[in-house]
Sequence to fold (80 residues):
Amino acid sequence: MSFVYVLKSLKNGKRYVGSTDLLPEDRLKEHNYGSNKFTKGNRPFILVHKEEYYTKKEAKNRENFLKSGVGRKFLDQILK
Fold:
């Protein structure tokens, strides 16, 4: 299984969208530890959304969509 997840910074409200083969909760711990350049400077984060997919390709396609203009608008609507 693969996952797409959305994190929200408690520091400044910025959003981070990613995909992983790990559980999103485990990946969140890595981000809050400082494993990624973007998230290191904007931590701490909370997990605000996750989706599960059968393949890594499906998850990556969904991640790319959520990073697009239409995808960002979609997230704005569901994360109100």
About this structure: The beta strands are 2-9, 15-20, 45-53. The mean pLDDT is 96. Residues 4 and 37 are 19 Å apart (CA to CA).
